[in-house]
Amino acid sequence: MNQLAMNTIRTPRHDIRNASSAPFKAKSAGRTVIVSNRVPSPNEKGATAGGLAVALADAATPGSLWFGWSGKRSQETSTSAELVEADGVTYATIDIGERDHIRYYNGFANGALWPLFHFRAGLLMFSRPDYDAYRKVNKAFAAALKPLLNPDDLIWIHDYQLMTMAAELRSLGVKNPIGFFMHIPFVPNELLDVLPPAAELLAGLAACEVVGFQRESDVKSFLGSAEKFLGVDVAADGSFAWQERRVRAVLTPIGIDAQKFAKIAERAELTGDAKRMDESLGDRALVLGVDRLDYSKGLPQRFDAFGRLLYCFPQHLRQVNFLQIAARSRQEVGSYQTLRRELDRRAGDINGEFSDFDWVPLRYMTHAVKRTAIAGFYRRARVGLVTPLRDGMNLVAKEYVAAQDSEDPGVLVLSRFAGAADELTEALIVNPFDADEVAEAIHLALTMSLEERKQRHAALAAKVNYTTAQRFCETFLGHLAKVRPN
Ligand code: GDG
């Protein structure tokens, strides 16, 4: 591929002087129409577990429309939406049929796309009926959205569950600018090749004018795959011609509302949850992991690394507690059930090996915790362990940095396979497959001087305060607003 094709559009990074705090309004007369698999209920906007809903709360400004699945499974997939308005935002949702949902969501999206796009081809379960249901649901989404559209709307589709929706909208005659943002990694064409409908999925994305990614390597993989499967020529600016439009790949890493999160964390120190945590820890240091229970997050490897810490650095015995919050997700998918059993076993092994009658090193829970409590735990934690085997971005890493007390901050240990590692270079960057390397990083974090902790944290906080959720929305929609109608 043309080397210059890598020069994709980039936001100048980390200049916090230019970070605006005013709510974003796309420079277009039309509305922003957000499309995502799940639509948060209006009352819990921004409060749900899961990165996408949290980050998109900023794009759902008054006047916008948020379209997607209601969360309800019905007899059949509906093709007309129910509308609810709250705070000036219209939430439009459809129900998905029970059987379609099992095949579309558990089957193709989470049984085939999720593992493959996290570089786990060995876990991929492809079946033609699952893929047919995926196409059917994407088509139903398009059919239900079309009557709600105005000609000057900007349509912004999110994530791997909806890769063919833009193509369905085009075949219904929709001419509006369409953008797509991929929250998870994109794989090199050699890996994508194992997926039978690879070319159709790419054609689905190529029905958009703007396709956004978390990392430079994702942009590169997408463009390389477009060359291979669609036979296009990629130009120096990272764009290519496909059917009657130009498709542009852009780098728009996602972020959080760091200032708001910092305030939540500060206030959380005063809550009952924080006090209970303090009492239970005493003088011991807290090492913390917060993840959905997902094999991409590297939890078995993380448990092993903690075991290696206790074995190789016995000075930490009785001085440290590792809390892993691993909220259950996708429990209908077999590989998630297997992971849960595996973690139960490893947690038992570690606690059996190292516990004393009055000290248990590893606390492991699989139910979700309130967002405020999590913010307070981040602030209390001397070490934030974010060690996914592969992750689009990982917002937990950014939340952990935002939650710290800048006068006595904790240390982030971060996998180099998380998108966040491209930006958060002052974290202790590790290879999560190497338990000893991660154990050494935890040891270093636990023994790091206050001065070094403050230096690292100041640099990280500046970045997290720059690449915010708002800037992410602003940058992506800015690209989309520039698209000229066909
Ligand atoms: C996808 C991509 C990308 C976690 N446990 C609880 C809880 N959480 C919250 C965290 C954080 C969010 O969920 C998780 O966000 P991540 O970014 O870490 O991960 P994914 O859900 O896999 O998100 C990812 C993201 O999309 C955005 O583009 O960064 O790479 O995989 O906000 O705090 N929240 C509550 N209770 C929990 O127990 N309330």
Notes on the structure:
By secondary structure, the chain is α/β, with parallel strands linked by helices. The chain is 40% helix and 18% strand. The protein contains 16 helices and 15 strands. Helix 10 (299-312) links the parallel strand 10 (285-292) and strand 11 (320-327). The longest helix has 21 residues, at 334-354. It is globular, with a radius of gyration of 22 Å. Bound molecules: GDP-alpha-D-glucose (GDG). Residues 49-52, 54-55, 183-184, 254, 290, 292, 325, 327, 368-371, 374, 391-396, 399 line the site of GDP-alpha-D-glucose.
Largest sheet: 9 strands, mixed
Could you report the average pLDDT, rounded to the nearest whole number? 91
Q: Going across the major beta sheet, what is the strand order?
A: 3-4-2-1-5-6-7-9-8
Helix content: 40-55%
Radius of gyration: 22 Å
Name the poorly predicted regions: 1-27
Q: What global shape is seen?
A: globular
> Strand percentage, roughly?
15-25%
Structural class: alpha/beta
User: End-to-end distance, in Å?
Assistant: 28 Å
In DSSP terms, counting alpha (H) and pi (I) runs of 4 or more, how many helices? 16
Number of strands: 15
Q: Cofactors and ligands present? A: GDP-alpha-D-glucose
